[in-house]
């Protein structure tokens, strides 16, 4: 993986169907500059179509970055890709009524040499491990997150709340793209995780921190994260990307 600027980015990815699902509705994309995870919803087939449609838009953004035809501003380029994802989902639903109501989360990090441009919609998550401390860098677009912010429930209660997967924002056919777009400053030694809720809903925050901090090999750490989610019952598909800044 070639660096883009003075810092180098290395990454590994793992995805697994989990213990209770028949198919994997997560989709993932990784390259030397763009990392993305999407978690589809809307039923077995529609969920797969939605997440893969969003990732297709991200893939095309990476190709435009390669040939220099993407917007120079990286946050703007990501925003355009998210809008394109919604257009694709809308077109697919118009062609096939069985796809009505499908949608997907999307969390993407676009590398810029010494920082990321980030785009986020839904409850897939981005984390940063720095100096042994783990921080969630995305905000869940869920009912329970709003309850936490209002002080009505604790983060611990949110982990097992029956409505924890009810989204307040997603990329949906017929909807409007409304991603959180923000820069993320990067330093040498940082480790980043983006994942679907099949990992973050099952594996406790402290366990994520300990695993990311102690398992140094990238391929080993993504395998370990999937193993932890499956050991916790694997109720959903599990997808994670871990990236090191060196």
From TrEMBL:
InterPro entries: PP2C, PPM-type-like_dom_sf, PPM-type_phosphatase-like_dom. It comes from the Bacteria. PROSITE patterns: PPM_2. Coiled coil: none annotated. Transmembrane segments: none annotated. Residues 10-245 form the PPM-type phosphatase domain. PANTHER family: PROTEIN PHOSPHATASE 1L (PTHR13832:SF827), PROTEIN PHOSPHATASE 2C (PTHR13832). This is Stp1/IreP family PP2C-type Ser/Thr phosphatase.
